[in-house]
């Protein structure tokens, strides 16, 4: 890629990309993982052989590197009596590369967990090692920790309630899923660009994104759950070394391609190729699985990715110097990726604190860097199109072609900008009106019309000028079968639309331009020009292209509308999903505080819902949730918000509702659920719901405190018999 002028808005895009990554990460990990610990744990070396070295703070063990080194330690902590909810205590370890880990004492022993061989009961995406303690345990507890590992590092036990552990695990799973999905979609996008442009840089990026996905999945321990990749488990840490070196080579290679290092600095490009060869050699040695090479290969892996990080940063800053598109944000993100990776390594050795951004931050920044690099490489598509256009312009009138190409691009951009602001019902009329207006000016038309027949037998007729619409309506009704046959040919042509037995009128023959609609829908554009000469092939091609752009813009706008709706809605119930609900709540509370308005929150939780799932199955439970969601929509106000908060729990935000009005709404909700007829497999299911109500206090501009009061009110309703409404403030015991 040659040096080009930087994109006008590349810095704005880069900042937006980083902010998006930060917001996405913060939404799934709003606090550090270590801050969630409930019970202090004292760790000391276990008596006897294999005693582990303990951290200076006495809160974890220091694992020694080597071949399956066994480390033992004693954990001591005090458990308070069980709470009213009967939540159990668990011991949690962050998922690091250990061959096996378990805890226990003379009375109880946990199952053994393995990083490289996850058990089925750990879930689809295991994120932590969790050991649930016996429910009756309390007061002073002493447990023996046994860890077998082939790599060095620090391992800290955390004792907390089971619900806290679940929240931590959910955060990690959400972040990992977002990282995997982002890398996978970037890989697919570049594979599609390679298929379209036949540029090997896109294929190289596909390999880079795929190697990043495999490396991150291996470091998280999720790769070993996939069929086929379980074969890497016997290599243990050496398998991760191989994938890390493979990714490092791919990252250096794609960055050199992006910056066109071969053209700007052949000597540096040669050094880069040598470095890639060395990295691949280290990966190959790691796959040999020789235990005698374990320690040297681990040291070589650490040195290798550090060297590659500095190399990538140097290449990126060289691209900045040569003004390559997107070079500045890519250079910044390369620096951040290297820093985040170093921080993660320091965390594994116990030198920095355990927060979500120190443990998982490098994965988020890696995705942002990969996305910015994808945008930089995508500039090759415009280069490819420019070359194609120059070859065509060599045989045709360059000024006319350039003018029409500019008009086509302007139309595409104008359609995209205009249609994204409209509702679905206005898309077709607006798009075809704009196309006809532009064709009329460019081709010097007297009149034009677009007739579209949808799959539901509805007809859209757009005429330019609009005064000709009645004439076109008569023409389309009279010659509909003929127009439909012409539309099926998908080829523009000039055809007379007079009746077969009608005498010649001497009028110019109109052009019929089929629209590429998906069957059974069909449509045509009818173009009329008063001059005696007909339409040229180029003019028909231009009209056909404009029609295609209109259809494409309409499809993309409809797809965008559907995607926005699906991103905002819970797929099962049709209510707002949790992320969208949180956004609307924050906005509503801010507006209510600004204008001193009333706002109430109602938590609705189905009573004994687990019994329905256990008795009739989860399909019946899903059916109940859909029915309840529909019932709630029928009760709440037009401007009220309804969202699924999680599981069988819904949340309603009632705008301008006082506490008394919210209580009455809660009673209507409770009655609606109680009286809701639900049939499943010939049986009538009886549903009831408990409702917790809380109203915004004047000083509250964020929803957290109100939601917490509504949640407490809900649990008060549960404790006092269910199927009732409880209003905060109340005494919660």
UniProtKB/TrEMBL annotation:
A GO CC term attached to the entry: plasma membrane
UniProt entry keywords in alphabetical sequence: Membrane, Transmembrane, Transmembrane helix
EC number per UniProt: 2.7.7.65
Names of the cofactor(s): Mg(2+)
GO molecular function terms noted in the UniProt entry: diguanylate cyclase activity
Catalytic class of the enzyme: transferase
Cross-referenced Gene3D superfamilies: 3.30.450.40, 3.30.70.270
Domain GGDEF as annotated: residue spans: 597-730
Stored PANTHER family: DIGUANYLATE CYCLASE DGCM-RELATED, REGULATORY COMPONENTS OF SENSORY TRANSDUCTION SYSTEM
Membrane-traversing stretches: 172-194, 201-226, 238-258, 270-290, 302-320, 332-352, 364-382
SMART domains membership: GGDEF
UniProt name for this protein: diguanylate cyclase
Listed CDD domains: GGDEF
An example Gene Ontology biological process: negative regulation of bacterial-type flagellum-dependent cell motility
PROSITE patterns attached to this UniProt entry: GGDEF
Catalytic activity of the protein: 2 GTP = 3',3'-c-di-GMP + 2 diphosphate
């Amino acid at each position: 890629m040659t040096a080009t002028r930087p994109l006008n808005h590349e810095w704005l895009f880069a900042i937006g990309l980083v902010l998006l990554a930060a917001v996405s990460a913060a939404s799934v990990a709003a606090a550090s993982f270590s801050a969630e610990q409930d019970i202090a744990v004292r760790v000391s070396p276990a008596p006897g052989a294999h005693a582990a070295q303990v951290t200076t703070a006495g809160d974890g063990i220091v694992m020694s590197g080597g071949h399956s080194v066994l480390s033992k330690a004693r954990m001591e902590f005090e458990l308070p009596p069980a709470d009213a909810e009967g939540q159990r205590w668990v011991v949690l370890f962050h998922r690091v590369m250990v061959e096996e880990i378990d805890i226990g004492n003379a009375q109880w022993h946990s199952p053994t967990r393995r990083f490289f061989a996850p058990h089925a009961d750990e879930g689809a995406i295991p994120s932590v090692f969790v050991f649930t303690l016996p429910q009756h345990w309390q007061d002073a507890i002493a447990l023996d920790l046994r860890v077998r590992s082939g790599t060095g590092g620090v391992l800290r036990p955390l004792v907390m309630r089971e619900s806290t552990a679940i929240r931590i695990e959910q955060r990690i799973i959400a972040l990992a899923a977002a990282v995997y999905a982002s890398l996978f979609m970037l890989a697919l996008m570049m594979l599609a660009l390679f298929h379209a442009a036949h540029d090997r840089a896109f294929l190289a990026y596909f390999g880079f994104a795929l190697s990043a996905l495999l490396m991150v999945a291996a470091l998280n321990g999720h790769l070993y759950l996939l069929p086929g990749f379980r074969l890497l488990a016997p290599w243990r840490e050496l398998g991760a070394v191989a994938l890390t070196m493979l990714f490092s080579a791919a990252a250096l290679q794609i960055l050199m391609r992006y910056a066109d290092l071969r053209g700007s600095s052949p000597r540096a490009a040669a050094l880069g190729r040598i470095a890639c060869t060395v990295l691949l050699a280290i990966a190959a040695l790691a796959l040999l699985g020789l235990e005698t090479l374990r320690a040297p290969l681990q040291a070589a892996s650490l040195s290798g990715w550090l060297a590659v990080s500095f190399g990538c940063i140097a290449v990126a800053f060289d691209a900045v110097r040569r003004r390559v598109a997107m070079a500045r944000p890519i250079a910044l993100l390369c620096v951040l990726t290297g820093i985040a990776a170093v921080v993660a390594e320091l965390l594994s050795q116990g030198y920095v604190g355990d927060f979500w951004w120190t443990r998982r931050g490098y994965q988020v920044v890696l995705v942002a860097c990969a996305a910015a690099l994808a945008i930089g490489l995508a500039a090759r598509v415009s280069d490819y199109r420019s070359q194609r256009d120059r070859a065509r312009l060599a045989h045709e009138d360059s000024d006319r072609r350039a003018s029409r190409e500019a008009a086509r691009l302007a139309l595409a951009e104008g359609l995209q900008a205009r249609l994204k602001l409209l509702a679905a019902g206005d898309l077709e009329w607006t798009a075809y009106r704009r196309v006809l207006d532009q064709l009329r000016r460019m081709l010097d038309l007297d009149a034009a019309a677009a007739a579209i027949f949808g799959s539901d037998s509805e007809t859209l007729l757009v005429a330019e000028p609009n005064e000709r619409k009645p004439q076109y309506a008569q023409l389309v009704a009279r010659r509909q079968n003929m127009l439909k046959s012409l539309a099926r040919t998908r080829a523009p042509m000039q055809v007379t639309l007079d009746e077969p037995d009608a005498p010649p009128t001497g009028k110019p023959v109109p052009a019929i331009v089929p629209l590429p609609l998906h069957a059974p829908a069909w449509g045509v554009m009818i173009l009329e020009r008063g001059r005696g000469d007909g339409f040229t092939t180029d003019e028909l091609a231009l009209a056909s292209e404009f029609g295609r752009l209109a259809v494409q813009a309409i499809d993309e706008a409809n797809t965008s509308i559907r995607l926005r709706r699906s991103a905002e809605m819970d797929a099962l119930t049709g209510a707002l999903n949790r992320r969208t609900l949180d956004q609307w709540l924050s906005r509503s509370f801010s507006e209510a505080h600004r204008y001193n308005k009333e706002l109430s929150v109602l938590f609705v939780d189905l009573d004994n819902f687990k019994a329905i799932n256990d008795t009739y199955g989860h399909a019946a439970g899903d059916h109940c949730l859909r029915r309840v969601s529909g019932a709630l929509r029928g009760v709440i106000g037009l401007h009220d918000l309804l969202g699924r908060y999680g599981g069988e729990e819904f949340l309603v935000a009632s705008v301008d509702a006082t506490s008394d009005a919210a209580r009455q709404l809660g009673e209507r909700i409770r009655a609606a659920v109680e009286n809701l007829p639900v049939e499943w497999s010939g049986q009538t299911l009886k549903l009831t719901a408990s409702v917790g109500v809380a109203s915004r206090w004047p000083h509250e501009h964020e929803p957290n405190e109100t939601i917490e009061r509504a949640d407490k009110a809900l649990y008060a309703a549960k404790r006092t018999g269910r199927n009732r409404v409880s209003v905060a403030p109340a005494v919660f015991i």
